[in-house]
Amino acid sequence: MILLDANVILDVWDPDPVWHGWSSSQLRKLSLLDEFVINPIVYAEISVSFANSVDLDEKLAELDAIVVSIPRRAAFLAGKAYAQYRRQGGTKINVLADFFIGAHAAVLECPLLTRDTRRYAAYFPSVRLIAP
């Protein structure tokens, strides 16, 4: 299984002029190798482009992406990583979602398809990142 980050999905659905090609190519290639999953955090992040959940669910079905719950172990790990980020001088308060996503990939022991590697690499070194 491969956990998808919201930025990759949105690059494809709302064609990003810079990242659409890379993200589309990765989704096509990797869909032949493994199943895609997202978690409720990613679901919430990508929902902003949709009027209702039925439309979003239909679009996710086109990707063959399923939504899986975040285990408590991952939520705990996310909180600890976020606390470390803040102790090290991190000032952004809107990044907690990234910590949930990184921790979820770590606990699932699965790769994460993303184009935003900085925090994931720093706080979840065990996660294999599929990135540009």
Walk me through the structure:
The model has no long low-confidence stretch (mean pLDDT 94). It is built from 7 helices and 5 strands; from the N terminus they run E-H-H-E-H-H-E-H-H-E-H-E. A 5-stranded parallel β-sheet has the order 3-2-1-4-5. Helices cover 55% and strands 10% of the residues. The protein has a single domain (2-130), classed as 3-Layer(aba) Sandwich (Rossmann fold). Helix 5 packs across helix 6. The longest helix is centred in the middle third of the chain and has 16 residues, at 72-87. It is an alpha/beta fold and 132 residues long.
CATH architecture: 3-Layer(aba) Sandwich
Tally of domains: 1
> Quick one: biggest sheet?
5 strands, parallel
In CATH, what is the class? Alpha Beta
Concise structural overview:
The protein is 55% helix and 10% strand.
Indicate the topology.
Elements: E1 2-4, H1 6-13, H2 20-31, E2 36-38, H3 40-46, H4 53-63, E3 65-67, H5 72-87, H6 96-108, E4 112-113, H7 118-123, E5 129-130
Parallel strand pairs: 1-2, 1-4, 2-3, 4-5
